[in-house]
Amino acid sequence: MKVVRCKYCPQLLLTPESRARGYGLVCGRKRGLIPPPTPRHTRLATPVTAVTTPDLHPDQLAIPLEPEMRNPEPDKARALPQINVECPTCSAAPGDLCTSHGGTRPRRHDVHQARTAAWNRHTTKEN
Ligand SMILES: [Zn+2]
Ligand SMILES: [Zn+2]
Questions:
Q1: What whole-number distance in Å separates Cα of residue 20 and Cα of residue 15?
Q2: Among 4, 88, 98, 125, which residue has the least CB neighbours within 10 Å?
Q3: What residues are neighbours of ligand 2 (ion), with CB under 5 Å?
Q4: How many Cα atoms sit within 13 Å of 62 on the Cβ side?
């Protein structure tokens, strides 16, 4: 293949289009010889403002979002009633998540069985 260089820079021209033109795409664009690429989506003539939910009236309550929607990975264990007692296994304080692996990893989805058992004893005692 015959070596063809861009007439504006030392760039080798490899594509048949560039070789036929005699200059590269970059130089052609830089010099306005090649039109810039057409955007895939033509820009709108008027800017569009995003529609947002209007503010609530002060006396109206917002509809609460599902916890899953706000937090994709909620600490399910916090919703368990047995979270309110101390865990006999890992000695997590009431309201705290159980921990595994020597206290390095919180158990977000459940608690130790002994804690559930402790809670059951606790509720039976109260009733
Ligand atoms: Zn060039
Ligand atoms: Zn525990």
A1: 9
A2: 125
A3: 87, 89-90, 92, 98, 112
A4: 7
Q: Which residue type sits at 3?
A: V
Ligand in closest contact with the CA of 100: 2
Q: Along the 127 residues of the chain, how does pLDDT read in single tens digits? A: 789 999 999 999 999 999 999 999 999 999 999 988 777 776 767 777 777 666 666 666 666 666 555 556 678 999 999 999 999 999 999 999 999 988 889 999 999 999 999 999 988 876 5
Listed by start position, the domains of the chain span: 1-36, 72-126
**How far is Cα 101 from Cα 90, in angstroms, rounded to an integer?**
10
